[in-house]
Amino acid sequence: MKTNYKLKLLAMLALMPALLYLSCKKDLSKPTPGLMQQTTTTVARAANETVNVWETTTDQTKLLAQQTNINFAADAGTNATTITVDENTTYQTIDGFGYALTGGSASLINGLGANQTTFLNDIFSTASGHVGSSFVRVTIGASDLSPSDFTYDDMPSGQTDVSLTHFSISQEMTDLVPVLKKIIAVNPSIKILATPWTAPVWMKTGTTGNGGFTGGSLNTAYYTAYANYFVKYIQAMAGQGITIYAITPQNEPLNPNNNPAMTMQSNEEANFIKNNLGPALANAGLHTKIIAYDHNCDQPGYPEAVLGDAGANPYVDGSAFHLYAGDISALTTVHNAFPAKNVYFTEQFIGGPGNFGGDFGWHMNNLIIGAPRNWSRVVLEWNLAADPNYNPHTAGGCSNCLGAVTISGNNYTRNTAYYTVAHASEFVKAGAVRISSNTFSASIQNVAFKNPDGTKVVVALNTATSSQSFKIKWGGESFTYTLPAGAAATFKWSGTQSSGSGGGAPIGTTITLKGFNNDYVSGEDGTTAMTCTRTTPGTWEQFLVVDAGGGKVALQSMGMYVSSENGTMPITCNRTTFGAWEEFTWGVNADGTITLQGNNGKFVSSEDGTQAMTCNRATPSGWESFGVNK
């Protein structure tokens, strides 16, 4: 037995050079002439990268708590909920996540005493273990979360100051400016958005109360003066070492009822920007961005009107949104109408005392996940801090706005918005880009990012009422994780994406397949052989891409699976479950079309669009290639 074993071993060793030569020769060979070359090249499978995990549960037993590390492994097994992350498909750049620093917040922070440094580092430091907020919104003059109403050029009733001789930011020198300087010292690269709740009362017409601070609109006679008011503000802050990155012309321009407040219709905002504000900033040599709208998602027509104004458009960087009405998808509506312009999400409050589980899930789903998935560069919660009685605020201002933290004397406690922002901001750094990850109509919602240092981040939320298992697939690797109902987790890892045999397949997505004849593949009601003859796609021409494990996919239409029928008969869509003959390798061609290769090694063919489809072609060409969602 030992002699035979040695002989076999020697024989194997003798054959190894030849085998290696043949293997290398095969890998280096050129594609067969006439075939479509695949765009995905095989990269060595990454080395089981470690994934760091942080989790928050609705019962608060875990609050951004780091979990035991897990590791990627070669993709295997199946999971109907598979998040396919593709770092090679990128979307918008991320400026950051954060909060509004109201005047009231600044005064409370200024009273923290010895804990002030700890607090500012907690929120703004980019070091590990801190929230690392990289974007902050401040108010130009008072907001409704200030102790009282004021602007930077208040005059006695009946008097005006067109030359802005009395302009002064002196009221900000006690709290806001000192706190901002300390924030900048902690995070010098932080970006600051500034927004007015109202113009000085003497500039307004049609006011409705609170000494003219509520309601009313900007008097056209003072458009130039108000533009110069912005210039003086930006210059005054610069004199304090504070750079204002961007401004919006008016907070909630369709809301006359806050205190302070001022309305500004879309045509008024467009006229003000193109004739006054834009030229004033340019003439002063200021590069502060102008962001339009800054109000709810139910009126996407407002920012579209401003951006659609030929005179205003060149001055406007993009548009900003709140979500007290409408749907977060409005951001995509505006992005699609003006893809060259940026989108920002700048305000959403939590009403105290709140419900942690419900508030956390809603804000994670709509803001932290929903806004970036709809092109937002920024997500900001309203507001950073309040006291235990939701103070300070103006008369008629928000009387139940729960801060991200509650400050009581020298101490602070963390609330819901602290954790929603931290789940992204601590891990997604300024300059990151959103990358491709599919989402689902129910259960696990998610968004993915790639940081400037190459690390990947996925934020996932379980919106179901029970625990959910899901897979995160990255190239040829994956891992599986289970989240309790309502819980969220942030996953972070390093490394380079490898390519798997199912690389690029949009797992969990419903697609259509268009053949070389520009007709659609049909499941033919699951009763006859499939064809590629439909001119328009209906229900049987839509296919859910299912993770079949091992880098394979299955295609499901109306609950039935496509089968290659052993490669010997026309293919069908009538299997209730999938096995080997219902599994396909998803390939991507140089022109963006895809191929489907069965377990017999043969390719699915549309058979010139005149016969029943098969899975028996040895090589792919035009009739074996399909456009996805074309």
Describe the fold and architecture.
With 630 residues, the protein is of the alpha/beta class. Helix content is 21%, strand content 30%. The chain contains ten helices and 39 strands. The strands form ten sheets. Strands 1, 2, 3, 4, 5, 21, 22, 23, 24, 25 and 26 form an eleven-stranded mixed beta sheet that branches. It has an eight-stranded parallel beta barrel with strand order 6-7-8-11-12-13-14-16, surrounded by six helices. It has a five-stranded antiparallel beta sheet with strand order 27-31-32-33-34, with no helix packed on it. Helix 9 (356-373) packs parallel to helix 10 (416-425). The chain is elongated.
Features:
disordered N terminus, alpha/beta, 21% helix, 630 residues, eleven-stranded mixed β-sheet
What's the helix count? 10
Helix residue percentage: 10-25%
The count of DSSP E runs of length 2 or more, i.e. the number of strands, is 39
Question: What share of residues are in beta strands?
Answer: 25-35%
Overall 3D geometry? Answer: elongated
Short structural summary:
By secondary structure, the chain is an alpha/beta fold. It is 21% helix and 30% strand.
What topology does this entry show?
Layout: H1 2-28, E1 50-56, E2 65-66, E3 70-71, E4 73-74, E5 82-93, E6 96-101, H2 103-110, H3 116-124, E7 135-140, H4 176-186, E8 191-196, E9 204-209, E10 214-218, H5 223-239, E11 246-247, H6 266-283, E12 289-297, H7 301-307, E13 316-326, H8 330-337, E14 342-347, E15 350-351, H9 356-373, E16 376-381, E17 385-386, E18 401-402, E19 405-408, E20 411-414, H10 416-425, E21 433-437, E22 444-450, E23 456-462, E24 468-474, E25 477-483, E26 488-493, E27 510-511, E28 513-514, E29 520-522, E30 531-534, E31 543-549, E32 552-557, E33 560-563, E34 572-575, E35 585-588, E36 594-597, E37 603-605, E38 614-617, E39 627-628
Parallel strand pairs: 5-24, 6-7, 6-16, 7-8, 8-11, 11-12, 12-13, 13-14, 14-16, 17-19
Antiparallel strand pairs: 1-2, 1-3, 1-26, 4-25, 5-21, 9-10, 15-18, 19-20, 21-22, 22-23, 23-26, 24-25, 27-31, 28-39, 29-30, 31-32, 32-33, 33-34, 35-36, 37-38
Helix pairs in contact: 2-4, 5-6, 6-7, 9-10
